[in-house]
Amino acid sequence: MQNAHLVRPQPESDAIRSRNERLRSGTLLEVRETALVGLLELRPRVFTDARGSFAETYRRDRFAELGISEIFVQDNLSRSVQGTLRGFHYQLKRPQAKLCWVAEGEALDVALDIRVSSPTFGQAQCIRLSAEIQNQIFIPAGFAHAFLALTESVQFIYKCSEYYDSQSEHGILWSDPAIGIEWGIEKPIVSDKDARFTTLANVPRELLPR
After folding, report:
1. Most buried one in 4, 56, 163, 171, CB count within 10 A?
2. Residue 9 domain-assigned?
3. pLDDT tens string for the chain (210 positions)?
4. Which residues are designated catalytic?
5. Complete edge-to-edge strand list for the sheet that includes strand 98-104
């Protein structure tokens, strides 16, 4: 039985469908909505030839047309071996929106809605990110974020709308049974810090975004 806390993509809204139809005239970017408000999967067009491939991973005016107006101030690159699980992470006082994709390999990306006033509080969306198709996930501020490296080597890139602040960082336990993510691995490689995180139910409400 499908876990009730995991949500699946919904059909395109009229607004997103209209934007996609306009953008397809240039065929550079496609957007897929999810069941979590504000969380989007983006699919840039990948140009391939005998030399390799090219994709436009970010262009501010095109993203603004889609309603993504965040100004990104920091880019991060992490390299992970297969089985590495990072997260769930979030910043409270300096919340970050993130734009994530992989340049090598594949990763299972998971966004967890921890906005206290949200109707989908405690629900998660899983999206498989692939270097081959260059799909991306846009995660608004107010979500906790985690990912699992699925291939031998994964280069994971993400843009952030706020600077990293260790004093503002918090987390949720990756294996929280109430969230019920089916990671597909029994013993992932997890940092000591991530292993010490508690379940969402045990996080004081004042340490969650509103």
Report:
1. 171
2. no
3. 344 455 555 556 666 666 556 554 455 789 999 999 999 999 998 998 999 999 999 999 989 988 899 999 999 999 999 999 999 999 999 999 999 999 999 999 999 999 999 999 999 999 999 999 999 999 999 999 999 999 999 999 999 999 999 999 999 999 999 999 999 999 999 999 999 999 999 999 999 998
4. 89, 158
5. 29-33, 40-44, 136-139, 98-104, 153-160, 74-81
At 126 the three-state DSSP class reads strand
Whether residue 78 is contained in a domain is answered as yes
* Alpha carbon of residue 63 to chain centroid: 16
Cis peptide before 88 (omega within 30 of 0): yes
Cβ contact 131:103 at 8 Å: yes
Q: What sign does the CA torsion over 156, 39, 141, 112 have? A: negative
Please state, in angstroms and as integers, the Cα–Cα distance from residue 87 to each residue in 23, 84, 95, 101, 193, following that order.
34, 10, 15, 16, 9
Comparing CA positions, the residue from 65, 53, 70 lying closest to residue 23 is 65
- Alpha-carbon gap, residue 35 to 38, rounded angstroms: 9
Distances (CA, A) of 58 to 64, 159, 173: 11, 10, 31
What CATH number corresponds to the domain at position 107? 2.60.120.10
| H/E element, 133 | none
Print the domain residue range for 149.
Answer: 14-207
Structural domain count, the chain: 1
